[in-house]
Specification:
Blueprint (H helix, E strand, L loop, with lengths): L1 E5 L3 H13 L3 E6 L2 H10 L1 E7 L4 E7 L1 E5 L4 H8 L2 E4 L6 H17 L6 E5 L6 H11 L6 H7 E3 L2 E4 L15 E4 L3 E5 L13 E4 L2 H25 L5 H6 L1 H22 L3 H16 L7 H5 L2 H4 L8 H8 L5 H12 L6 H23 L6 H17 L1
Parallel strand pairs: 1-2, 1-6, 2-5, 3-10, 6-7, 7-8, 11-12
Antiparallel strand pairs: 3-4, 9-11
Protein name: Mannitol-1-phosphate 5-dehydrogenase
GO biological process, one term: mannitol catabolic process
InterPro entries: 6-PGluconate_DH-like_C_sf, 6PGD_dom2, Mannitol_1_phos_5_DH, Mannitol_DH, Mannitol_DH_C, Mannitol_DH_N, NAD(P)-bd_dom_sf
Length: 387
Protein backbone atom coordinates (compact mmCIF):
# COMPACT_ATOMS: atom_id res chain seq x y z
CA UNK A 1 0.00 0.00 0.00
CA UNK A 2 1.14 3.52 -0.75
CA UNK A 3 0.21 6.93 0.65
CA UNK A 4 1.03 10.47 -0.44
CA UNK A 5 1.17 13.14 2.24
CA UNK A 6 1.37 16.86 1.42
CA UNK A 7 3.28 18.80 4.07
CA UNK A 8 6.40 17.33 5.69
CA UNK A 9 6.23 19.57 8.76
CA UNK A 10 5.57 18.67 12.38
CA UNK A 11 2.04 17.28 12.01
CA UNK A 12 2.93 15.60 8.73
CA UNK A 13 5.95 13.70 10.03
CA UNK A 14 5.12 13.45 13.73
CA UNK A 15 1.50 12.38 13.41
CA UNK A 16 0.00 11.53 9.99
CA UNK A 17 3.11 10.15 8.30
CA UNK A 18 4.06 8.18 11.41
CA UNK A 19 0.63 6.56 11.68
CA UNK A 20 0.51 5.70 7.97
CA UNK A 21 3.97 4.14 8.15
CA UNK A 22 2.99 2.13 11.23
CA UNK A 23 -0.08 0.96 9.29
CA UNK A 24 2.06 -0.61 6.56
CA UNK A 25 2.00 2.17 3.95
CA UNK A 26 5.01 3.43 2.05
CA UNK A 27 4.69 7.17 2.66
CA UNK A 28 5.65 9.69 -0.02
CA UNK A 29 6.06 13.12 1.56
CA UNK A 30 5.46 16.05 -0.79
CA UNK A 31 6.74 19.48 0.25
CA UNK A 32 8.34 22.63 -1.15
CA UNK A 33 11.22 22.62 1.38
CA UNK A 34 14.02 20.94 -0.56
CA UNK A 35 16.18 20.56 2.56
CA UNK A 36 13.53 18.37 4.25
CA UNK A 37 13.00 16.43 1.01
CA UNK A 38 16.73 15.74 0.68
CA UNK A 39 17.02 14.73 4.35
CA UNK A 40 14.13 12.24 4.09
CA UNK A 41 15.48 10.71 0.88
CA UNK A 42 18.99 10.49 2.32
CA UNK A 43 18.04 8.89 5.64
CA UNK A 44 15.01 6.84 4.48
CA UNK A 45 13.72 7.20 8.06
CA UNK A 46 13.41 9.67 10.93
CA UNK A 47 13.05 9.64 14.71
CA UNK A 48 10.14 10.84 16.83
CA UNK A 49 10.30 11.07 20.63
CA UNK A 50 6.86 10.35 22.10
CA UNK A 51 6.22 11.99 25.47
CA UNK A 52 3.33 11.51 27.88
CA UNK A 53 2.59 11.36 31.59
CA UNK A 54 6.17 11.23 32.92
CA UNK A 55 7.00 8.69 30.22
CA UNK A 56 8.77 8.85 26.92
CA UNK A 57 9.81 6.51 24.13
CA UNK A 58 11.62 6.87 20.84
CA UNK A 59 10.19 5.47 17.62
CA UNK A 60 11.80 5.30 14.19
CA UNK A 61 9.52 5.98 11.25
CA UNK A 62 10.59 3.94 8.24
CA UNK A 63 9.42 3.18 4.69
CA UNK A 64 9.36 6.85 3.70
CA UNK A 65 10.55 8.96 0.78
CA UNK A 66 9.95 12.51 -0.42
CA UNK A 67 9.35 14.57 -3.54
CA UNK A 68 9.11 18.28 -4.24
CA UNK A 69 5.51 19.39 -4.74
CA UNK A 70 6.55 21.15 -7.97
CA UNK A 71 8.02 17.94 -9.45
CA UNK A 72 5.80 16.65 -12.30
CA UNK A 73 6.39 13.10 -11.03
CA UNK A 74 3.90 13.89 -8.24
CA UNK A 75 1.14 13.30 -10.81
CA UNK A 76 2.21 9.68 -11.31
CA UNK A 77 2.35 9.17 -7.54
CA UNK A 78 -1.18 10.54 -7.17
CA UNK A 79 -2.40 8.05 -9.78
CA UNK A 80 -0.84 5.09 -7.95
CA UNK A 81 -1.45 5.68 -4.23
CA UNK A 82 -4.33 4.36 -2.12
CA UNK A 83 -4.67 7.43 0.07
CA UNK A 84 -3.67 11.11 0.06
CA UNK A 85 -3.43 13.20 3.22
CA UNK A 86 -2.55 16.84 3.83
CA UNK A 87 -1.19 18.95 6.68
CA UNK A 88 -0.23 22.14 4.87
CA UNK A 89 -2.39 24.74 6.61
CA UNK A 90 -5.86 25.79 5.40
CA UNK A 91 -4.51 28.73 3.38
CA UNK A 92 -2.46 26.35 1.18
CA UNK A 93 -5.28 23.96 0.28
CA UNK A 94 -6.09 25.78 -2.95
CA UNK A 95 -2.52 25.25 -4.20
CA UNK A 96 -2.69 21.57 -3.27
CA UNK A 97 -6.04 21.33 -5.09
CA UNK A 98 -4.36 22.25 -8.38
CA UNK A 99 -1.74 19.51 -7.94
CA UNK A 100 -4.40 16.94 -6.99
CA UNK A 101 -6.55 17.94 -9.98
CA UNK A 102 -3.62 17.37 -12.34
CA UNK A 103 -2.95 14.01 -10.66
CA UNK A 104 -6.59 12.97 -11.11
CA UNK A 105 -6.37 13.86 -14.81
CA UNK A 106 -3.31 11.59 -15.08
CA UNK A 107 -5.20 8.86 -13.19
CA UNK A 108 -8.02 9.17 -15.75
CA UNK A 109 -5.49 9.10 -18.60
CA UNK A 110 -4.06 5.77 -17.45
CA UNK A 111 -7.63 4.46 -17.00
CA UNK A 112 -7.27 3.73 -13.29
CA UNK A 113 -10.50 2.77 -11.54
CA UNK A 114 -8.84 2.11 -8.18
CA UNK A 115 -10.54 4.13 -5.45
CA UNK A 116 -8.53 7.00 -3.98
CA UNK A 117 -9.44 8.62 -0.67
CA UNK A 118 -8.19 12.08 0.26
CA UNK A 119 -8.13 13.31 3.87
CA UNK A 120 -7.23 16.94 4.61
CA UNK A 121 -5.89 16.96 8.18
CA UNK A 122 -6.16 20.68 8.82
CA UNK A 123 -7.44 22.92 11.61
CA UNK A 124 -10.45 23.82 9.50
CA UNK A 125 -14.00 22.54 9.74
CA UNK A 126 -14.68 20.02 6.93
CA UNK A 127 -11.35 20.74 5.27
CA UNK A 128 -11.68 17.76 2.91
CA UNK A 129 -15.06 18.97 1.65
CA UNK A 130 -13.47 22.40 1.10
CA UNK A 131 -10.62 20.73 -0.81
CA UNK A 132 -13.10 18.78 -2.96
CA UNK A 133 -14.83 22.00 -4.04
CA UNK A 134 -11.45 23.51 -4.90
CA UNK A 135 -10.45 20.45 -6.97
CA UNK A 136 -13.79 20.39 -8.83
CA UNK A 137 -13.30 24.04 -9.81
CA UNK A 138 -9.99 23.12 -11.45
CA UNK A 139 -11.41 20.18 -13.42
CA UNK A 140 -13.61 20.33 -16.48
CA UNK A 141 -17.19 19.23 -15.67
CA UNK A 142 -16.76 16.20 -17.95
CA UNK A 143 -14.41 14.72 -15.31
CA UNK A 144 -16.71 15.35 -12.34
CA UNK A 145 -18.53 12.01 -12.70
CA UNK A 146 -15.21 10.15 -12.50
CA UNK A 147 -14.21 12.11 -9.41
CA UNK A 148 -17.54 11.50 -7.66
CA UNK A 149 -17.35 7.77 -8.46
CA UNK A 150 -13.74 6.97 -7.59
CA UNK A 151 -12.31 9.81 -5.46
CA UNK A 152 -13.41 10.15 -1.84
CA UNK A 153 -12.87 13.35 0.13
CA UNK A 154 -13.07 12.33 3.79
CA UNK A 155 -13.56 14.95 6.50
CA UNK A 156 -11.75 14.36 9.76
CA UNK A 157 -10.83 15.72 13.16
CA UNK A 158 -7.23 15.52 14.35
CA UNK A 159 -6.03 16.27 17.85
CA UNK A 160 -2.41 16.29 18.96
CA UNK A 161 0.36 18.72 19.95
CA UNK A 162 3.76 18.62 18.22
CA UNK A 163 5.94 21.58 19.24
CA UNK A 164 8.87 23.06 17.40
CA UNK A 165 12.18 21.39 18.26
CA UNK A 166 15.07 23.58 19.41
CA UNK A 167 17.43 24.45 16.58
CA UNK A 168 20.46 23.06 18.36
CA UNK A 169 19.28 19.52 17.63
CA UNK A 170 21.56 18.32 14.82
CA UNK A 171 18.98 15.94 13.32
CA UNK A 172 16.83 18.17 11.10
CA UNK A 173 14.06 15.55 10.96
CA UNK A 174 13.87 14.85 14.70
CA UNK A 175 10.53 15.60 16.36
CA UNK A 176 8.93 15.50 19.79
CA UNK A 177 5.27 14.49 19.83
CA UNK A 178 2.76 13.80 22.58
CA UNK A 179 1.36 10.33 23.09
CA UNK A 180 -2.20 11.68 22.77
CA UNK A 181 -3.00 11.43 19.05
CA UNK A 182 -6.64 11.36 17.92
CA UNK A 183 -7.72 10.94 14.29
CA UNK A 184 -11.46 10.60 13.67
CA UNK A 185 -12.87 10.34 10.14
CA UNK A 186 -16.31 10.35 8.50
CA UNK A 187 -16.98 6.71 7.56
CA UNK A 188 -19.68 7.73 5.06
CA UNK A 189 -17.34 9.65 2.72
CA UNK A 190 -14.94 6.85 1.74
CA UNK A 191 -14.93 5.37 -1.74
CA UNK A 192 -14.52 1.62 -1.53
CA UNK A 193 -13.49 -0.08 1.70
CA UNK A 194 -11.99 2.29 4.30
CA UNK A 195 -8.27 1.55 4.80
CA UNK A 196 -7.10 -0.04 8.03
CA UNK A 197 -5.04 2.64 9.76
CA UNK A 198 -3.62 2.44 13.29
CA UNK A 199 -5.68 4.45 15.82
CA UNK A 200 -7.95 5.94 13.14
CA UNK A 201 -11.55 5.99 14.39
CA UNK A 202 -14.46 5.74 11.94
CA UNK A 203 -17.45 7.83 12.95
CA UNK A 204 -21.04 8.47 11.86
CA UNK A 205 -21.14 11.65 13.95
CA UNK A 206 -17.98 13.51 13.00
CA UNK A 207 -19.31 17.05 13.46
CA UNK A 208 -19.52 16.69 17.24
CA UNK A 209 -15.88 15.53 17.42
CA UNK A 210 -14.73 18.33 15.10
CA UNK A 211 -16.42 20.95 17.28
CA UNK A 212 -15.27 19.33 20.54
CA UNK A 213 -11.65 19.59 19.44
CA UNK A 214 -11.80 22.94 17.64
CA UNK A 215 -13.78 24.72 20.36
CA UNK A 216 -11.85 23.23 23.27
CA UNK A 217 -8.20 22.57 22.42
CA UNK A 218 -7.90 25.16 19.64
CA UNK A 219 -9.99 27.77 21.45
CA UNK A 220 -7.91 27.36 24.63
CA UNK A 221 -4.66 27.36 22.64
CA UNK A 222 -5.59 30.59 20.83
CA UNK A 223 -6.78 32.43 23.95
CA UNK A 224 -3.59 31.46 25.81
CA UNK A 225 -1.42 32.53 22.88
CA UNK A 226 -2.94 35.99 22.33
CA UNK A 227 -3.09 36.80 26.05
CA UNK A 228 0.42 35.41 26.60
CA UNK A 229 1.92 37.48 23.78
CA UNK A 230 0.47 40.66 25.29
CA UNK A 231 2.57 39.87 28.37
CA UNK A 232 5.53 38.99 26.12
CA UNK A 233 5.63 35.31 27.06
CA UNK A 234 7.30 32.99 24.57
CA UNK A 235 5.73 29.57 25.13
CA UNK A 236 2.35 28.03 25.94
CA UNK A 237 3.78 26.72 29.22
CA UNK A 238 4.85 30.21 30.35
CA UNK A 239 1.42 31.61 29.48
CA UNK A 240 -0.59 28.89 31.20
CA UNK A 241 1.47 29.22 34.41
CA UNK A 242 0.38 32.88 34.68
CA UNK A 243 -2.52 32.67 37.15
CA UNK A 244 -4.60 35.37 35.48
CA UNK A 245 -4.19 33.92 31.98
CA UNK A 246 -4.76 30.40 33.30
CA UNK A 247 -8.08 31.46 34.83
CA UNK A 248 -9.25 33.17 31.61
CA UNK A 249 -8.22 30.24 29.39
CA UNK A 250 -9.86 27.69 31.65
CA UNK A 251 -13.01 29.80 31.91
CA UNK A 252 -13.14 30.34 28.13
CA UNK A 253 -12.90 26.59 27.56
CA UNK A 254 -15.67 26.01 30.09
CA UNK A 255 -17.84 28.67 28.41
CA UNK A 256 -17.29 27.01 25.05
CA UNK A 257 -17.85 23.63 26.70
CA UNK A 258 -21.26 24.71 27.99
CA UNK A 259 -22.28 25.34 24.37
CA UNK A 260 -20.95 21.93 23.24
CA UNK A 261 -22.73 20.14 26.11
CA UNK A 262 -26.01 21.83 25.23
CA UNK A 263 -25.74 21.34 21.47
CA UNK A 264 -24.34 17.78 21.31
CA UNK A 265 -25.70 16.45 24.60
CA UNK A 266 -22.19 15.67 25.82
CA UNK A 267 -21.81 14.24 29.29
CA UNK A 268 -20.73 17.21 31.45
CA UNK A 269 -18.29 15.24 33.63
CA UNK A 270 -16.67 13.62 30.57
CA UNK A 271 -16.26 16.94 28.82
CA UNK A 272 -14.72 18.64 31.86
CA UNK A 273 -12.38 15.64 32.13
CA UNK A 274 -11.40 16.33 28.49
CA UNK A 275 -10.64 19.95 29.45
CA UNK A 276 -8.47 18.71 32.34
CA UNK A 277 -6.50 16.50 29.94
CA UNK A 278 -5.91 19.47 27.65
CA UNK A 279 -4.60 21.53 30.56
CA UNK A 280 -2.15 18.77 31.41
CA UNK A 281 -1.01 18.83 27.80
CA UNK A 282 -0.56 22.62 27.92
CA UNK A 283 1.53 22.29 31.10
CA UNK A 284 3.78 19.50 29.80
CA UNK A 285 7.25 21.12 29.45
CA UNK A 286 8.15 18.70 26.62
CA UNK A 287 5.22 20.06 24.59
CA UNK A 288 5.77 23.75 25.28
CA UNK A 289 4.98 25.21 21.88
CA UNK A 290 5.85 28.76 20.80
CA UNK A 291 3.02 31.28 21.15
CA UNK A 292 3.83 33.01 17.86
CA UNK A 293 3.30 29.73 16.02
CA UNK A 294 -0.01 29.11 17.80
CA UNK A 295 -1.16 32.71 17.18
CA UNK A 296 -0.35 32.85 13.47
CA UNK A 297 -3.08 33.50 10.90
CA UNK A 298 -5.45 35.42 13.21
CA UNK A 299 -7.81 36.29 10.33
CA UNK A 300 -8.69 32.62 10.00
CA UNK A 301 -9.08 32.18 13.76
CA UNK A 302 -11.44 35.19 13.90
CA UNK A 303 -13.78 33.97 11.16
CA UNK A 304 -17.44 33.69 12.16
CA UNK A 305 -17.41 29.86 12.17
CA UNK A 306 -13.99 29.53 13.79
CA UNK A 307 -12.57 28.81 17.26
CA UNK A 308 -12.81 32.30 18.80
CA UNK A 309 -16.05 33.68 17.38
CA UNK A 310 -18.46 30.78 16.86
CA UNK A 311 -18.48 29.61 20.52
CA UNK A 312 -18.86 33.26 21.59
CA UNK A 313 -21.85 33.78 19.25
CA UNK A 314 -23.54 30.58 20.39
CA UNK A 315 -22.94 31.14 24.09
CA UNK A 316 -24.75 34.49 23.65
CA UNK A 317 -27.57 32.82 21.69
CA UNK A 318 -28.00 30.22 24.46
CA UNK A 319 -27.88 32.91 27.16
CA UNK A 320 -24.70 31.43 28.65
CA UNK A 321 -21.64 33.16 30.21
CA UNK A 322 -19.18 34.39 27.56
CA UNK A 323 -16.94 37.13 28.98
CA UNK A 324 -13.74 35.08 28.83
CA UNK A 325 -14.34 34.05 25.22
CA UNK A 326 -14.74 37.76 24.46
CA UNK A 327 -11.41 38.47 26.22
CA UNK A 328 -9.66 35.91 24.00
CA UNK A 329 -11.13 37.35 20.82
CA UNK A 330 -10.23 40.89 21.91
CA UNK A 331 -6.63 39.84 22.57
CA UNK A 332 -6.43 38.48 19.02
CA UNK A 333 -7.27 41.95 17.66
CA UNK A 334 -4.50 43.43 19.81
CA UNK A 335 -1.92 40.89 18.50
CA UNK A 336 0.81 42.39 16.31
CA UNK A 337 3.62 40.43 14.67
CA UNK A 338 5.56 41.89 11.69
CA UNK A 339 6.28 38.33 10.47
CA UNK A 340 2.56 37.48 10.39
CA UNK A 341 0.88 39.13 7.39
CA UNK A 342 -2.63 38.51 8.72
CA UNK A 343 -1.82 40.19 12.03
CA UNK A 344 -0.43 43.22 10.23
CA UNK A 345 -3.51 43.37 7.99
CA UNK A 346 -5.72 43.55 11.10
CA UNK A 347 -3.44 46.22 12.59
CA UNK A 348 -3.66 48.21 9.34
CA UNK A 349 -7.47 47.94 9.28
CA UNK A 350 -7.74 49.15 12.88
CA UNK A 351 -5.47 52.09 12.12
CA UNK A 352 -7.43 52.99 8.97
CA UNK A 353 -11.06 52.45 10.01
CA UNK A 354 -11.05 51.85 13.77
CA UNK A 355 -11.63 48.77 15.87
CA UNK A 356 -15.43 48.72 15.53
CA UNK A 357 -15.50 48.57 11.72
CA UNK A 358 -12.59 46.16 11.72
CA UNK A 359 -14.52 43.83 14.03
CA UNK A 360 -17.52 43.99 11.73
CA UNK A 361 -15.35 43.24 8.68
CA UNK A 362 -13.20 40.45 10.12
CA UNK A 363 -15.87 38.64 12.17
CA UNK A 364 -18.81 39.39 9.88
CA UNK A 365 -20.99 40.68 12.73
CA UNK A 366 -23.47 43.57 12.80
CA UNK A 367 -22.75 46.93 14.44
CA UNK A 368 -25.30 46.53 17.23
CA UNK A 369 -24.66 42.85 17.99
CA UNK A 370 -23.88 41.62 21.49
CA UNK A 371 -20.85 39.84 20.03
CA UNK A 372 -19.34 43.10 18.78
CA UNK A 373 -20.13 44.96 22.00
CA UNK A 374 -18.63 42.17 24.14
CA UNK A 375 -15.36 42.09 22.22
CA UNK A 376 -15.15 45.89 22.07
CA UNK A 377 -15.53 46.13 25.85
CA UNK A 378 -12.65 43.69 26.41
CA UNK A 379 -10.49 45.29 23.71
CA UNK A 380 -10.76 48.71 25.38
CA UNK A 381 -10.03 47.07 28.73
CA UNK A 382 -6.80 45.57 27.35
CA UNK A 383 -5.79 48.95 25.87
CA UNK A 384 -6.45 50.64 29.22
CA UNK A 385 -4.40 48.07 31.17
CA UNK A 386 -1.42 48.51 28.83
CA UNK A 387 -1.31 52.31 29.01
Amino acid sequence: MKALHFGAGNIGRGFIGKILSESGFHVFFSDIDQNIIDAINCNKEYVVKIVGNNQEKVVTVKNVSAINSHDPKVMKIISSVNIITTAVGPSSLDKIALIIAKGILYKIKVKSIISLNIIACENKIKASSFLKKAVLKKLSTKYHDYLNKYIGFVDCSIDTIIPLVKKENKDSLFLIAEDFQEWIVNINQFKGTPPTIVNMKLSNNLNSFIERKLFTLNTGHAVAAYLGLIKKYQTIQEAILDKKIRFIVRSAMEESGAVLIKRHNFNKDNHFSYINKIFFRFENPFLSDHLKRIARNPLQKLEKKERLIKPLIESIEYGLPHSNLAKGAAAAFYYQNPQDLESMKIFSLIKKQGIKKTLMTVCNVSINSTVLCSILKEYYSICKELK
